[in-house]
Amino acid sequence: MTRFVLVHGACHGSWCWTDVEAALRRRGHETEAIDLPCRGDDHTPAREATLAGFAERVARAMERPSVLVGHSFAGFPITSAAALVPDRIRQLIYVAAYVPAPGRSLRDMRKAWPDQPLRGSYVMAEDSAAFTFRTELARPLFYHDCAPEIAADAVARLCPEPVSPQETPIPETDAAVALPRRYILCTEDRAIPPAFQAAMVQDWPETAVVRLATSHSPFLSRPDDLAELLCREL
Q1: Which domain holds residue 12?
Q2: Digit-coded pLDDT (tens) for 12-38
Q3: CA nearest neighbour of 209 among 80, 41, 95
Q4: For residue 109, what is the domain's CATH number?
Q5: Taking the alpha carbons of 105, 108, 111, 115 in that order, is the dihedral positive or negative?
Q6: How many CB atoms lie within 10 A of CB 149?
């Protein structure tokens, strides 16, 4: 049995992993999907959110050796957490996720890539401390291959996301690089272009990158297939 800790991306919460958790448990594994600060039972104000705080939340969930999985923006906090609890991470798995480049924030990385479908897809809060995705754009960007009722439920659950963690670079990523890592590249992703995903892992061994023909949200559209990929090479 393997323990999986699952970390959601921007504007999402632990709820998005429900079907994957069920699929992993059917395979005999243990799971914990966590909420990052500023959602769920955590009422941290967006203006007080930090990438360090997000990483500490992930590290607390790593109470014993586990596979650490991050989707989308969560590539940043799981990479940061690797420096805090490297001995408790059996493997890092990035699912259609940003792979931090040393010294560059997520915002820096996104601006540097010429094709950015997320541009114009969000609305800033009045104090500029958080953003939310435009509901009319969320479904085609994130859930285009999901059943209509699943996509509608996901859109209704989206929450504001703090800006500061996305503007914070990780000085160095040596701890994460030293760990076993895998990447699940979503080939029909309309949020993070597949070519951008491929560029972020271009120096990784070919065997560390697997492709899944889904949108940005395989945990909703193909949870069983995603669970099967997560279980490979344990």
Answers
A1: 2-233
A2: 999 999 999 999 999 999 999 999 999
A3: 95
A4: 3.40.50.1820
A5: negative
A6: 8
